[in-house]
Amino acid sequence: MSNIVDQITGHRRMRRNRKADWTRRLVQENRLTVDDLIWPVFIVPGTNVVEPVAAMPGVNRMSIDRLVEAAKEAADLGIPALATFPNIELSLRDETGSNCLAADNLINEATRALKRHVPAIGVITDVALDPFTSHGHDGILREGEIVNDETVEQAAKAAVIQADAGSDIIAPSEMMDGRIGVIRQALDHAGHQHVGIMSYATKFASAFYGPYREAIGTGGLLKGDKKTYYIDPANGTEAIRDAALDVEEGADMLMVKPGLPYLDICWRMKEAFDLPVFAYQVSGEYSQIKAAAMNGWIDGDRVMMETLLAFKRAGCDGIVTYFAVEVARALSKKG
């Protein structure tokens, strides 16, 4: 005998596989592990400095010595890599971001320290100029325009210097045309064929970056906006075309930034290209979750995990997230 539900469903009942914890675990399609995590960190000058970022509860700017301590914990938790971002003194910032070419600048000194003291963890560095410019843009500003070719030339030089310091992966995020190919040629010419390139292939002109700009000290410096070189949030096909050019130019990995609002782009990139795809769960995404959790409006831990799992479901091979250490600790307890 069958009832009306069996007649309608043809005896196909989706809840059979959901009836118990063990069956749910058995058929789970995607899993988040510590191997999926890249931890972005903010570096400041000085010694024994830990500065909370007000707009990002739980996130700190750290001097290199304290960063090394934090990196040791991250490595012990199994986090594969860090992505480093410097907050340098205003006196070192200028119109062209020239400090990015200093071999002993903050980001390169941090790389050397990390490779010396925590060799097991990967170091990913960015060549975008915004931490180094007095105007907060990712490139060189000439007569009101971010000039493409001169910026690319400087980014390529910075990439070689960062590789000399020990960077494992160069992650160019400034969205200039041709940057991946020029950086690849520069790295290879300098003998850094082993250094990878994780292209910020689709970086959108998003409103989700505000807390990050506070963290690296560019929020009050930015003149105008970045719409002439970041992608319009309305344009998915353009984003895939941009990524395709980076693939042709020699990118080893691809990045989507921001993350959660662009899960469709993550999926389309994974389907289109035979390369690892990563999402950057940016500062605005992180801060929203933290703020809502602090107000008791959501279960912060569950939302944190759910959003990260969403990236995996969308085809991402990994996620750059400020939650990385928090998640790694939770996963280690669960295991």
TrEMBL record:
This protein's pathway: Porphyrin-containing compound metabolism; protoporphyrin-IX biosynthesis; coproporphyrinogen-III from 5-aminolevulinate: step 1/4
Record bears the keyword Membrane: no
EC number: 4.2.1.24
Top class in the EC scheme: lyase
Record GO terms (molecular function): porphobilinogen synthase activity
Protein keywords: Heme biosynthesis, Lyase, Porphyrin biosynthesis
NCBIfam families assigned to the protein according to its UniProt record, in alphabetical order: PRK09283.1 (NF006762)
Quaternary structure note: Homooctamer.
Family membership: Belongs to the ALAD family.
Protein name per the record: Delta-aminolevulinic acid dehydratase
Source organism phylogeny: Bacteria, Pseudomonadati, Pseudomonadota, Alphaproteobacteria, Hyphomicrobiales
